[in-house]
Amino acid sequence: MRMSRLFGKTLRQTPAEAETPSHQLLLRAGLVHQVAAGVYAFLPLAWRTLQNIERIIREEMDAAGGQELMMPAIHPIELWQASGRDQAMKDILFRFSDKRDREFVLGPTHEEVIVELFKRNIRSYRDLPLLVYQIQQKFRDEPRPRGGLIRLRQFTMKDLYSFDTDFEGLDLSYRKMYEAYIRIFDRCGVPTIPVLADSGAMGGRDTHEFIYLTEYGEDTCLLCPKCGYAANADVAAFVKEPAHTAEEPKPIEEIPTPGLYTIQALADHLGIPTSKTCKAVFYSADGEPVFVAIRGDMDVNETKLSRALRTVDLHYMSEDEVVAAGFVPGSAGAVGLKGVRIIADDLLPREVNLVAGANKPDAHLLNVNYGRDWQADTLTDIALAVEGSLCSATSDKQGECRTPMDVRRGIEMGQVFKLGTFYAEKLGATYLDAEGKQRPAVMGSYGIGTERLLAAVVEANHDERGIIWPAEITPFQVHLVALQPERDEVGTAAEKLYGRLQTDGFAVLYDDRDETPGVKFNDADLLGMPLRVTVSPRTLEKGSLELKRRSEAESELVPLDEGPSRIKASLAS
Amino acid sequence: MRMSRLFGKTLRQTPAEAETPSHQLLLRAGLVHQVAAGVYAFLPLAWRTLQNIERIIREEMDAAGGQELMMPAIHPIELWQASGRDQAMKDILFRFSDKRDREFVLGPTHEEVIVELFKRNIRSYRDLPLLVYQIQQKFRDEPRPRGGLIRLRQFTMKDLYSFDTDFEGLDLSYRKMYEAYIRIFDRCGVPTIPVLADSGAMGGRDTHEFIYLTEYGEDTCLLCPKCGYAANADVAAFVKEPAHTAEEPKPIEEIPTPGLYTIQALADHLGIPTSKTCKAVFYSADGEPVFVAIRGDMDVNETKLSRALRTVDLHYMSEDEVVAAGFVPGSAGAVGLKGVRIIADDLLPREVNLVAGANKPDAHLLNVNYGRDWQADTLTDIALAVEGSLCSATSDKQGECRTPMDVRRGIEMGQVFKLGTFYAEKLGATYLDAEGKQRPAVMGSYGIGTERLLAAVVEANHDERGIIWPAEITPFQVHLVALQPERDEVGTAAEKLYGRLQTDGFAVLYDDRDETPGVKFNDADLLGMPLRVTVSPRTLEKGSLELKRRSEAESELVPLDEGPSRIKASLAS
Question: What pTM did the predictor assign?
């Protein structure tokens, strides 16, 4: 490709809209263009890279036994009503109607449709296991599209679906995908770690996210530096222990606390740590008020809470809702509370003599004890792990790991789900077993977003001058720079080399433009092809070419006639 | 691929929903599945074929200098309002809103978006010509999706856009695409002819459709068997001549015609041919009534009429509308008609003494003559060519061709448009010329629908037993059939050959199923791979394999050890 003809221009300035280094570089390199919030066009260099990413994904999915097919983006609403996800995913569904008022969804994922295909084509256990996938457009009305390509409203996803006869089969399919994902991210040059995650609206059991750790990520993970436990903060378990040494329960006592509406103010006033208090938090769960109790120094993990409540729509109550529900903001407490569901963190029964709201204005209670003074309808782990929370992973030999964990941010590159029989039962995906009995198929679902992966590739492979493309996904292998190409000897040598390298099967970007050496070298660094080859009056005087790897500072001169073989060797290394 | 694992099952029965041979075969072969009206999923065999079609298109677009990129399906409505096509294409636009009530369109085509990209990336005449394309999903709310894959509501289109500095450049880009299209359809095994067509809502000047002639097509073409003139009936020109020998104009005369409401009834009553009458037809053009006059034996060509009126929304008036507009149904006529726009076919001034409506109930006029008795506001060609219409194509040497033309039906495989400066001017796509002056870019647009092409491939390449895939797009090259694969010698020989052929780089579908020879051979014929290779106890007794080309009736036995080389030779031939 001649740069004089390439569609897409590099920019000197970093556009103000860019939020992260990858976003800045993708814009500066002229690779992408935003058409609407979270909706992008991909110019030729970006598209070549995305096609390389797709090729790698395809190779790994095929090697794992996947069969590629293609499902549509338009789904009849009835399919989503049947699974119940017209409600569970309603916040992000794009819905629309045709001219005959039939309603449709733009597919945010394809479990419903693949189950339809399964029902038409699979009869018997002999047809299983089945692994089918597509690389296709998804549509999600994300409320806050951000970070360039990190959170898009239209994006490309490889989604593979596995169907097995039983859970052992699912475990095997899941393992295959897990390993294929490790290889894919590795080949794309993005270091990732698998972390335990939440299955959210997907339903099902086990799930892992593959995370690229970066401060620009929007996911938060807990990592154990000793045993390797890794989990999304949404689901991270940790060792919970009482904050204080054991003491005898004391009699409950009401005290006036006018003006003390926060845990911190209350603790400061009483001269106690916040861990000596019980905090009340109010949620609306599918429209019903819920009273949530947790130790004063801890925060509620909404994912754990949502799971414990089996709720579809969970949100923090507004002050109006709190009052309307009959709670006393600032001094609400569980003691004596009637007619409302109470859920408490499971650490509370092990804490003694806590301070809690008195459930009347401007008053709190001292020495509140779980069991004696109040009880929850649900008692379970709803606490958020934080930096330094102790690792609760266990091994047969040593019990709990108990190492303080690190909190790190990261980008989710892909996710694998053990869906189990949820969709098969809801939507009727069954097969006949060896005894001729109808049984539900056991499903898994496995996704990778290719544009997000592209962003992570750039995030993980750049320096202050620009992108450094990994070998397998680089849009071009060689960036051929001709300095003063209008001079006959340069033009001739560069054109000849350009032709030769292409004949040899290399993908070459040829800077044939009428620009200064500074502009050309800056663009070569910004665009990031692995090998820069320069032909100039100076190199030709010495009968040579200059080779410089993008990832290295040094360049070398090689004899003209050794050019092609040295270039080949450099790219192979 | 082992057939025992292939996702997609052949059917014994032809599904009732299938309208055309290609649709029947695609369903019977288990290649496609309808998810909603005009919305399909493509199973692995179909998807492999579509990918091959995409590869061919890509190769030809790249060879013609096209650069591939990718634009989104979600378009802000503002872009479509700017071009005016939110109205011009409103009947087929899918519109929807996000959660913040911003309105979007699902792109039915991408002129608006590519112009946005052009504006960001092109500055100067030095950047032109530019040819950019994508292979991407399109969405059109077709009122009557039909014929399986012929008219879809979601479909894949290769759309290339050309930008040139002037119309000579556009002619060159257009010619490149025209020739590339010929090669693409040829490589896909579909004979096509380019025909002159209507540019419809695309705007612009010249346009050709590439038509595959078949009785199952929904387009109608006029073809001259002598000179090769070919045009869609929408735009077909023809030689128009007076139906009768010249005679002197006679005085106008009113006659009573009670109960004679049709041209045929009138002509029968008067004992004259319909060509001796003048027919009145009523249209609503952008809400305004229009009186259309044409010779009684001819039909109005609505595309020509729409162009002549420069109207966006043209429809035949209902009886209520006719009456409301003040026309006299059954005996309306142009003589004395006031206050309404009259458009007449340009043949009428050359006809003498016609019978026309008297513009009052139950009366007609004899000897009506254009010019003397009435005049049109617009006089132009608005007549539909029919079987036997005379070819009006001219050559320098011989004047009009005048050969009677044939009417044929066909499927439109692709269309190329000279858009000119319409979009550039509407949307501001300009470049600086060599003198530094802003000028509008001259655009072309060139589309191919891949699923429709797939349907045409099957329509053009099948027999009563099934599909016969052309070599370049076949999902697999070899259909390896093992008869009684449970017998050791068969299983071993077939597995070995399967492995060997794959190692040699052939795409092999291997029927390893526990089925009868009849079922296997029927499926091989139905699925249509170019070469069937059979391993059975009988062939092995003779130390051989059976090779049969799908397109030929005869099979041949070849020695086992020559198998791979003979297969290779057969596929190469």
Answer: 0.92
